Amino acid sequence: MRKAKGERNSDERSGTQSVERAVGLLREISARGQFGWQLSDLSKQCGLNMSTAHRILTCLVQEGLVKQRPGGRRYLPGPLLYELGLSALPERWDLQHAARSRLSALAGETSGVAFLFFRSGDDFVCGARVGKAELRAPVFPGTRLPLVLSSGGAAMLLALPEPEALATVERNLAHLADYSEVRIQAIRHMLDSSFAEGFGVNVGDIIPGVNAFGLPLCDAMGSPFAAIAVAGPAQAFPPERRTEIYHLLEEAAIGLRAARC
Q1: The pTM is what?
Q2: pLDDT tens figures, 199-220
Q3: 14, 68, 184, 241: least CB-packed within 10 angstroms?
Q4: Tens of pLDDT along 145-159?
Q5: How far apart are CA 106 and CA 129, in angstroms?
Q6: Between the CA of residue 68 and those of 80, 178, 252, what are the distances in Å?
Q7: What are the sequence ranges of the domains in the chain?
């Protein structure tokens, strides 16, 4: 029997909603791929009740998109995500490969830890982390966070048209509604410093005691698709080094742009 128009629309909305929920769960799981999520925390983060989240996660586990840590109940990225990713965006794989040697040199020259970040909408995703320095920064390959939470993210915001950058900042801050006013003010201080300096400058604003600097990588149209950043303990990365570190970042960025062409 043919469904009424309203019924078809309802089914379509239901199907779309299920996909959106599954993608939201995958996004959050991938953002904490090193640590995983407990069901209660993950469902709360995604705005789902636990029974709905569990039902979707069970399906994702069966399909290999999600796995559970042996002996525990934390949800982690599954092997199918990696397999699917192998066929997507080969230019990003090429950039990651080229970036590792550049980032290794940058980390060595600064005695810090160097990062490659990719822009993903209003977020950044860590593509590489290189360096042996002790650094209290929970950002590893696969980590996804709002752009306003790193010097590399701030660098990409700087490269956007001002109206788009400001709108992105406000959406990011709305996403961080559970942050204290002190932390929000620290984020705004980092953004103000970055806009004043013309590149990403984070002087202990995101993680106390950790300073970081970043530069964007832009495509042929001038749109930022990635960024490189370097971070280290405040005593080793004082603000007085920002000009030196800026030039080292610029040299690495020029090399990566040339490798990408």
Answers
A1: 0.77
A2: 999 999 999 999 999 999 998 8
A3: 14
A4: 999 999 999 999 999
A5: 11
A6: 13, 27, 38
A7: 5-84, 90-260
